[in-house]
What does this fold into?
Amino acid sequence: MSALEINKVFKDYGKVRVLKDINISIDSGEFLILVGPSGCGKSTLMNAIAGLDDITAGEIRIGGDDVTHRSPKDRDIAMVFQSYALYPSMSVRENIAFGLEMRKVAKTERDQEVERVAKMLQIEHLLDRKPAQLSGGQRQRVAMGRALARKPKIYLFDEPLSNLDAKLRVEMRTEIKKLHQRLGTTIVYVTHDQIEAMTLADRIAVMKDGVVLQLDSPQNIYDNPVNMFVAGFMGSPAMNFIKAPLVKLDQGYGVSLTNQAGDTYALPVPQAKQGSLDGWLNKEVILGLRPEQITHVMPHRQSEPFCHTLPCRVEVAEPTGADTLIEIFFNGQEVDARIEPRSQAPVGQVMELMLDMSKAVLFNPETQDRLA
Amino acid sequence: MTNTRPVSTGERLARGGIYAILIAAALVYLLPLAVMLLTSVKTLDDIRTGNILSLPVEIVFDAWHKAWSNACTGVSCNGVSGFFWNSFQIVIPAVLISTFVGALNGYALTKWRFKGSELFFALMLFGCFIPFQVVLLPMAQTLGYVGLANTTTGLVFVHVVYGIAFTTLFFRNFYVGIPNELVLAAKLDGAGFFTIFWRILLPVSAPIIVVCIIWQFTQIWNDFLFGVVFSGQDTKPITVALNNLVNTTTGVKEYNVDMAAAIIAALPTLVVYVAAGKYFVRGLTAGAVKG
Ligand SMILES: Nc1ncnc2c1ncn2[C@@H]1O[C@H](COP(=O)(O)OP(=O)(O)OP(=O)(O)O)[C@@H](O)[C@H]1O
Ligand SMILES: [Mg+2]
It folds into this structure.
């Protein structure tokens, strides 16, 4: 059963259309992540789901019921705000119990619930403090506790980790993941952090300018982006976009790449992706190749059908520890490659690189949409 | 203390000059109060023979006693004590009601915005700039219609109406600094309009409540015009009684009694300011509460 259905939702602020025809349906227990650049409408969509803001058109259903015109408290939703929004005059205990109190849960039951949540989040020793006496990470856990004290149909998290330092973020990310696995609740989660998105999500919705560009599993978003925006948004360093002419080969179509030495190579595109390429022969398309698909030569993979080796000159090298990012040029354009540190040739020298074309994607240079 | 740099003579002179100016200014401001205090404890003879700044020959509190309980304020001669309590009966409810309504207005105008709420607030601000005199006649008529003319209730009503513009302004400006997410979170938790006000907003409003109370208390206590126009014979506030006492023309002019009565009239506002003044400054500069 779908836990949340968003059908044809529009939202205008005055003359500005902030949400445009949003359609999302998620199953019970699913973890949906909304990503997108700042101002694309993520918080607006969250507020619409929670009922904190009226929508201009469309329908929102929770657990099958149409809640479009219900007030927030009747939607059975708990939300963690980016700013935590802890009630400053109340102790942690009162903060967590407030929602239960408003729903007329008896005192003894409330106390039990607070204890349970506090234990789960390891904030038992903080229960009698005021929010002002807590650190950022502790506040974050209290905010989470306030949501978890109730058992709503859906949890909404609006960038809950964005105020934390890098280490705490990673810790909390793991905690949230465990929590979701343990409780099996439906969660909609906003983040700017693509690692958070990739690690937590069952599905990711990539938004831009109030439109959902792609709603898919993390792996599919990563491997099969619908356009250049999605492709460039996920992954760090970003996918390489290389302008290259489409050529005809024995096995079908391929793209032509010229290295720094001026030698040109025609690399075939996998058969499965050739469907819509007919009109593009000898025209320029955009080849999308992630840095990890351009590597040092791995002998055991060399025999794979779409792996090709070609010599390239190392222009710049950036060691990151686990691997080294090097910059090379194809068709006169900068391209990042990710190689094993020990295999790197000194800067300015030529080394053999292996290109894995099986995951290459092609885009229309005008519309930036996916071709193949 | 740890500054071991030698202070040059020039600097010393400059500093001395600044202190001299400050002390002189303080003396000028204190002089009227000193004169009032001195005069109020002199006998009438003492006042006549000495000059205005001379110390009393003998300190007597007769004038204070008379001002409090049997000086003539117009026809009656019972001192200002009754009017003193009249003022409290006007000021306390007026301050509490206007502060409360201002808080509610400020809350609604910031956290439950409605179409036109900005315009509503702008119009309300006009209220801060309307001179007292302009509202006298319409207000008198209104009070007559509703049967509150010459009553304490009527006067309280006038002060509340006039004060709401200011209290609303204070609370609105305070509440815009309080994050909206607090209210949204409470809504999701299931709290309604008044629950959110009582449980979330009011508990963090102490600084601005203090500001409002001091401001309103001083304004209403010191008001003369509304008091003289809208009060009845027995409901006059102390400011009006003081005026009547000073202007009573029969007999000799008892400056010591006048001064004592004036000090009595000013005392409550002084006490309020001394007791809560530092919160006043703090409240005016208080920003948003950290969540
Ligand atoms: N109350 C409002 N009135 C007018 N425009 C608004 C209002 N709230 C948001 N907007 C606009 O709607 C758009 C979407 O805002 P929203 O807060 O949903 O962005 P977001 O995706 O959450 O961004 P961020 O990642 O920075 O939080 C923005 O362009 C914003 O300026
Ligand atoms: Mg946002």
Observations:
- Chain A is about 25% helix and 35% strand.
- Chain A has a mean pLDDT of 92.
- The longest strand of chain A covers residues 2-13.
